[in-house]
Specification:
With 472 residues, this protein is an alpha+beta fold. It has 2 domains: 253 residues, no CATH class; 201 residues, Mog1/PsbP, alpha/beta/alpha sandwich (Protein Transport Mog1p, Chain A). Strands 17-18-19-23-22-21-20 form a 7-stranded antiparallel β-sheet. It has a 6-stranded antiparallel β-sheet with strand order 1-7-8-9-6-5, covered by helices on one side. The radius of gyration is 25 Å and the shape is globular. The two termini are 23 Å apart. The N terminus and C terminus are likely disordered.
């Protein structure tokens, strides 16, 4: 069964509407005022500059150095409502989250995607997306990176850090507490954009559709959006100080939050994953609690690495490799005359850090939704090709997620544009995701890859092919 999340992610990229071309005409503004009290008695105020600025939730308060601050993507999501904890607004959704939530690629360094929904029904389609862009340099005191730097300097100074030496920003530039709007259409396609400056971030809501009823519903709901006041402890209150109970569960957007991507690229935790080694046809990694018998007649092969050139794809590639490590790549032994291996088959063993990748993993055989999310995440990481189906199997109490699909060939000797059949076996062990990727030029060659024994510390031996397919 195809992954709904993966299919939705692909369909979003194929929408025939160019958002940039559909927001050329601006038409007025929808004013949704929420007067918040000033953050302190020293905030600049006059008859012409309303004091509506509220101090950003202090991401450094009571947090040790290095701990993650409150992120722009932080919010709460139910099936019908979204609340941004970081920016302090909320609204009902024109689509239910269930069945319409999609995965997105990781964002550029200073951009954030907070929510992405999409539907296709009959001849109509529609999408609803919320994004934010960082303030320009000099007005970025509240971004998570700056707050984390501030806390680290405060800690290094022995809790006697005097604070940031930065020019104060006028309060009217920090929080507008309303969305402006613009609507445009071309033929039968419509786009509505809402935007607001909040603490110098630019927050945007983009609605793209061919359905006037969906457009009308989405605009009506945006007209009822509520703005809240974020307090220093991270909670939200109304303008009169009443605490807000946000609907739904904590949510960090449809892709890895930008702060986490930047941190992974900076720190590269994957380099600390122990590599293990091969002796006498057995791969052993005591630190990860893993041994794996190479299939008879297989040998260690040179790892293939071909980073993309295009900037956004390179960022995704670097992020994946910052959060993972290739432990082993093997292939059938070559014939004595040195000819290429006949089957073209390859097995790649990798260890992925799920916390670094912000990747949830299935915890039971009924956790199909999480398995679909993992499939979509693997697709967005680019290197794992297209996932056509997924399933869950429990082997001796060890839960495996199994994915099948295709992956572009990477070896220079293989024909350009050729796709390899692929089978992925993924399990969580000792805080890591262990991934076996089996690849071959054709499905029959993939099915012919021999099995071999794996042992995870604390579990009985398992045979890679028959066990993982539930045949034992």
């Amino acid at each position: 069964m195809s992954s709904p999340s993966a299919v939705a992610a692909r369909s979003l990229r194929q929408l025939p509407i160019c958002a940039c071309a559909l927001v050329l005409a601006f038409c007025g503004a929808t004013m949704l005022h929420a007067q918040c009290p000033p953050s302190d008695n020293n905030s600049p105020s006059s008859d012409n500059i309303p004091s509506i600025i509220v101090k950003r939730p202090d991401a450094t308060a009571k947090k040790p150095p290095g701990e993650e601050p409150l992120l722009p993507e932080a919010g709460f999501l139910s099936n019908t409502h979204y609340t941004s904890q970081f920016f302090g607004f909320g609204f009902d959704l024109p689509l239910t989250v269930e069945g319409h939530q999609i995965m997105m690629p990781i964002m550029p360094p200073k951009e954030h995607v907070l929510l992405a929904l999409q539907y296709e029904k009959g001849g109509h389609h529609g999408s609803f997306m919320v994004t934010a862009t960082d303030p320009r340099p000099g007005f970025d005191a509240d971004i998570p990176e700056k707050q984390q730097e501030q806390l680290q300097r405060w800690a290094d100074a022995g809790n006697n850090f005097p604070g940031q030496n930065q020019i104060p920003v006028p309060s009217f530039m920090l929080r507008s507490n309303h969305f402006h709007s613009a609507v445009h259409h071309h033929g039968g396609n419509y786009a509505a954009q809402y935007w607001a400056g909040i603490d110098n971030y630019m927050v945007k809501v983009m609605i793209i559709t061919s359905d006037q009823d969906f457009l009308r519903k989405a605009r009506n709901l945006m007209g009822q959006a509520q703005f809240y006041c974020p307090l220093e402890d991270g909670t939200l209150v109304t303008k009169d100080g009443t605490p807000v109970t946000a609907e739904g569960e904590p949510y960090y957007g449809p892709t890895v939050p930008t702060f986490r991507v930047n941190a992974a690229l900076r720190d590269a935790p994957g380099k600390d994953i122990p590599p293990g080694g091969v002796t006498g046809g057995v791969y052993s990694n005591p630190e990860l609690g893993l041994t794996y018998d190479l299939p008879p007649g297989w040998e260690v092969a040179k790892e293939q690495s071909d980073p993309p050139i295009e900037a956004s794809r390179l960022r995704v590639y670097q992020f994946l490799h910052a959060c993972s490590r290739t432990l082993l790549q093997i292939e059938p032994q070559r014939a004595p005359n040195g000819k290429e291996k006949a089957s073209g088959a390859t097995i790649i063993l990798q260890a992925l850090d799920p916390n670094c990748l912000s990747m949830r993993t299935a915890v039971s055989l009924t956790d199909k939704r999480t398995t679909d999310e993992v499939a979509a995440s693997l697709e967005q990481l680019g290197e794992f090709g297209e996932i056509a189906s997924d399933q869950l199997e429990s082997i001796h109490g060890q839960l495996f997620m199994i994915f099948r699909g295709t992956r572009p060939a990477s070896e220079p000797t293989q024909q350009l544009g050729q796709r390899l059949s692929q089978e992925i076996f993924l399990t969580r062990h000792n805080k890591m995701l262990l991934m076996w990727s089996l690849l071959a030029p054709k499905a029959d060659a993939l099915a012919a890859i021999p099995g071999s024994k794996i042992v995870l510390e604390g579990s009985p031996p398992m045979e890679l092919r028959t066990s993982l397919n539930g045949k034992q």
